[in-house]
Every structure is written in C-alpha cells, then in structure tokens.
Design a protein that fits this description.
The structure holds two protein chains of two kinds. By secondary structure, chain A is an alpha/beta fold. Chain A is built from 15 helices and 13 strands. In chain A, the strands form two sheets. In chain A, strands 1, 2, 3, 4, 5, 6, 7, 8, 9, 10 and 13 form an eleven-stranded mixed sheet that branches. In chain A, strands 11-12 form a two-stranded antiparallel sheet. In chain A, helix 14 (379-396) links the parallel strand 9 (368-374) and strand 10. In chain A, helix 2 runs parallel beside helix 5 (92-109) and helix 7 crosses helix 14 (379-396). Chain A starts with a helix and ends in a 9-residue tail after the last strand. Chain B is an alpha+beta fold. Chain B is 36% helix and 38% strand. Chain B is built from three helices and four strands, in the order E-H-E-E-H-E-H. Chain B has helices at residues 16-26, 58-71, 82-88, and strands at residues 3-10, 30-39, 42-50, 74-80. A four-stranded antiparallel sheet of chain B has the order 2-3-1-4, sandwiched between helices. In chain B, strand 2 (30-39) and strand 3 form a beta hairpin. The chains are: A alpha/beta, B alpha+beta. At the A-B interface, helix 1, helix 3 and helix 9 of A face strand 1, strand 2, strand 3, helix 2 and strand 4 of B.
Chain lengths: 454, 90
C-alpha cells in the first residue's frame, strides 16, 4: 500500500514544483470531410470536430478533479488542411475560410488551440500547399486559436529551399498583419524539418495521415520537478546526476500515462502516444535554464550548456520510455526563450545568443523556439536561419523547428509581452550579413548520404 | 474497490480528523488506513479510504473535503489512489 511520504512527494511536486500534464491533444482526421464544394466542406469540418471533441474539455476537468493534477491545455489537432482543402479551395482566401471554420469549432468545444493549419512540403509543393502557405498570414491574423505549421524538409527528402525562401516572407507578413499585437501571429506559426505525425504540442501539432480516425496524445511536463530533484545532487558525479534525472522523468511520465489512459477510456478514443517533454512555462522555477544552473552552470549559455542539454534530453527519454509503452511526438527538453524565465534572464545578461541556441538545438528535442528578433529583419535572413536549423535536423535525423517572432516596430533591447503561457521576451540581435544570393537559388538541397538505407 | 487518498496538511488543531471521519461515515466511505507525521512543523495526515459505496459523486466528496479544510484552516484533498500508485510503483 502507498505510504504517506510517497503521497506527500507527489503532492509537493504538484503544488510547489508545477508538475502538470501540459496537454491532452485530441487528433481528428478530417480526410472523410473532403468535398469539392467549399461551403459543404466547412460544414462537414465544423460538424466533425464539434461532434468528436464535444466532451474533451469536460473529461479533462473531471480527470483534473479526481487525481488532483492540473491539465493545463485541452487541444485539438487535425489533418493538414492543405490536404483537406485541396479540392475545394481555389484561392488563398478560400483557405482562410477554413481557418475561420477551425477557429469557430475550437471555440464551440472550449479548447485553447487547434493545430493542423499545415502543409507538408518537404520535397515539393502542390498548388494546394502553395495556396495554404500564402494564406497563413491572413489566417493567423483573423483567427484566435488556429495554429499553423509547415514541414520544409526531412532526412529522407532533403530540404525544399523554395519553401524555405517562401517562409521567410510569410513569417514577416504574419508579423506585419499582427503588428498591432506585438506580432503575436508568429507565435502560432512554426516550420519543421522531420515533423512528427503525433506531436501534441502547439504550434506544431497536426494529425498526420498515418494516424487513425481519432487519437488521444498527451504531453507531460515538469521542469520544476526536475530542478528540485537536482537540488540535492550538488557535487555528485555525472552518473548520479543522470540516474536522478531518469528516475524523475519516470515519475513524471507515469502521471501522463495515467491521464492518457483515463482520457482515452472516458472519451472512448484510442490512446496514441505520450510526448515526454520538459516544457517550461513563465512561472518561476518551471524552467529548463534553472536546471542548467542547478547542474552547475552560472547561466544557460555558459560553456557546457550544450553538453548539459544533451544529457538532460537523453536521460529524460531513458526514464520516460520505461514509463509508457507508446512514446512519440517530440519527447525531450524544449528550449523556448519567451516561455522560460531562466532563458530570458540568460539572454538579458548576455550569456545566451541566437548562435548558442542554434548549437543547443542539435541536442534538444525541437529547435529555435519563441525567439523575438527585430521587426526590420530581412526575409532572406529569416530564411537563412530556417535553412540552418532545417539542415541540423536533416543531417542529424531529428526533428528541428523554427518559431521566430520578428516584432514589428521593435529592435534589440526592447521587450515584447505575449502574455499567458507564451510569456515575454527580450528582442535578440541577428546576424544581418547578406545571404540573398544563396537563398534565392531555389530548388532543393538533396537528402544526405546516410538517408539511403534501403 | 475504488480507493481514494485523503490528505490533510496544516496546523494541528482539535477535531480535524473527527470532522473528516464523520463526513466519511455519513456517506458510506470506509477508512482502510490512517497515518500521520509532522514535516517542517506542519501536521500531515493521510487516509486511504474505500469509496466504492460512497453516496455522493467523487467531485462532491472532493469539494466537501476542501470546504471542511477551509473551515478548519488546513488543506484537505481527496485524490484517486492510482496517481500515487502509478508514480511510485512499477
């Protein structure tokens, strides 16, 4: 039987160390909605989402109540809309109509984000993909809860450099259209290399075509718990440090597994995967950078940070994999800047630069995330940053992503406030040496040699 | 059997356990185990109870525990046992 110290430990994690389940994300396939008539397509999409997800929020709240564990977000991911809208949408504006339909459905069922306004163009781009990409700035400016993602490359296909060039302009245009709100549209837009089909985290969640009709994916969190566990490990060797991280990751993931199983049973929807990510929030102590400091680095960004992140990421996976039979999504440590107090502190004190962040993305679970850059950054510079990040993902056979926010009207030294879980961020300098002749070449970067495994 | 863990954390005062137990008895909740300890000067008590014959919904039981806690100036929580089992047992 469970003892009082174990009960106190769990409750301390929840109450003092911000242990929570970050998201229950309900994946819904919209392939059955495809229609050549736009109005009928909108109706079918709305009906399907509001039907499947009608109990999602209530069930999430029930589980929170019964287990005493906060479930911060209840979200929906859908089939990439470029695939669903291809037959009905003839202009970018038609796609915007679909974004508004998704937004309306999300509001009706009470979720806080809906992901899947996406195009998968890792090798080439269909006409429909192109229209959807062109519609992203307007779609994100005119909706509240819709999140958009574009997969620009993979280890198997190489990098679609036409897409990379295009996304530089699209990100800037999204920033301009939401310029009156600190360019918040860009916080809902992410580009990927090797995007997973079952990621429950926003802004990059979509319901891949390899998935079933409906699926429940759960994202766990808990940087605060990890930091606390490492408090008692000052001066211990790396073996002991790793063991502590692994054990803690196991405990965190088991809670996610329980919530996923319960949600799956109560909604009568199959369980997909647990994404065992350490996802920071702006709350004090709920920070990946604080974990680095606990490990012995003065600030995130100090020499040794990449090694610290590599071991953290790996041990989180090793502990978490044991706790759940199905692990997927992004799984690892997220290093967003604006959502992490310790990262913000590191940027403000000059310890952490964009280039160091890029190095860290070689070993973290995703990529350059929630980074505010000057609003007058050139589109080609943004494309260059994307190309670098995608190349890291392609060559290292991992998911990488870029979510940059060129904040219109702000420059280095300013601060931008996104609010809520998105936090705030100091505007970071970017290397502005010209790269246009490189970016404008067009075409594809071929897949790396080690991708030919057949 | 549906097992629930009830925890009481706060300053020790007369009658806390009596209040909780009275409510549980009135609602057909059987107490299986009680243990207590003092951590950092705070009184910590844990009860493992069987709620399979409980007359009220879990939400009501949890709300009522919270309310009694507020009246007695301590924190009382009711949580299903699975969360602790899952976290601490392989």
């Amino acid at each position: 039987m469970i003892n009082i110290y174990e009960v106190l430990e769990t409750n301390e994690m929840i109450e003092k160390e911000n242990l929570d389940v970050r998201t229950i994300t309900l994946g819904i396939s919209l392939l059955s909605c495809i229609d050549s008539d736009l109005e009928r397509l909108k109706e079918k999409i709305y009906d399907r989402i509001t039907d499947v997800a009608r109990d999602l929020v209530t069930v999430g709240q029930e589980i929170e109540r019964e287990y005493g564990i906060p479930i911060v977000n209840k979200r929906i991911s859908v089939t990439p809309i470029a695939l669903v809208g291809g037959a009905a949408c003839h202009t970018a504006e038609d796609f915007v109509e679909l974004a508004k339909t998704l937004d309306r459905a999300a509001k009706e069922v009470g979720v806080n984000f809906i992901g899947g306004y996406s195009a998968l163009v890792s090798k080439g781009m269909t006409h429909s993909d192109e229209l959807l990409i062109q519609s992203i700035p307007q779609a994100l400016a005119e909706t509240d809860f819709v999140c958009s993602s574009v997969n620009l490359g993979s280890t198997k296909t190489g990098l679609n450099m036409d897409g990379v060039r295009m996304m530089g302009d699209i990100i800037l245009e999204t920033a301009r259209l939401t310029g009156d709100r600190d360019s918040i549209g860009c916080a809902k837009l992410v580009v990927f290399c090797n995007a997973p089909d079952d990621n429950p985290f926003m802004a990059g969640a979509f319901h891949g075509v390899s998935e079933a009709n409906e699926i429940i994916n759960v994202g766990v969190s808990g940087p605060g718990v990890m930091r606390k566990a490492l408090e008692s490990q000052h001066g211990t060797d790396f073996g002991t440090l790793c063991e502590t991280i692994k054990k803690t990751a196991f405990k965190i993931t088991r809670v996610g597994q329980l919530v996923a199983r319960e949600a799956s049973q109560r909604l009568n929807i199959p369980f997909g995967i647990i994404d065992l990510s350490l996802a920071p929030t702006p709350a004090i102590g709920d920070s990946i950078a604080d974990i680095f400091e606990e490990m012995g680095l003065e600030r995130a960004g100090a020499p040794g940070t990449t090694a610290a992140l590599a071991l953290l990421n790996d041990q989180v996976k090793k502990g978490g994999v044991m706790a759940s039979s199905y692990v997927g999504g992004l799984s690892g440590a997220f290093i967003p800047v604006s959502e992490d107090q310790g990262m913000i502190r590191a940027v403000e004190s000059g310890a952490l630069t964009l280039e160091k962040l890029e190095a860290m993305t070689c070993v973290c679970s995703v990529g350059l995330d929630m980074i505010a850059i000057p609003g007058d950054t050139k589109a080609s510079t943004i494309s260059g940053i994307i190309a670098d990040e995608m190349a890291i993902g392609m060559v290292n056979q991992k998911t990488t992503a870029v979510r940059l926010i060129p904040v219109i009207g702000k420059s280095v030294g300013d601060t931008v406030e996104f609010g809520g879980l998105l936090g705030y961020a100091p505007v970071m300098p970017v290397n502005s040496f010209d790269n246009r002749d490189f970016i404008n070449r067009g075409g594809r970067i071929p897949a790396p040699i080690h991708s030919f495994k057949n | 059997m549906k097992r629930t863990v009830i925890t009481v954390v706060g300053k020790d005062s007369v009658g806390i356990i009596a209040r909780v137990c009275t409510y549980l008895a009135e609602n057909q909740v059987n107490i299986l185990d009680i243990s207590q300890t003092i951590v950092d000067g705070f009184f910590n008590m844990m009860m493992i109870v069987d709620t399979s014959r409980c007359k009220v919904d879990f939400g009501v039981l949890a709300d009522e525990m919270e309310r009694i806690g507020e009246e007695m100036s301590c924190i009382i929580k009711a949580q299903r046992e699975d969360i602790f089992d899952n976290m601490h047992r392989i």
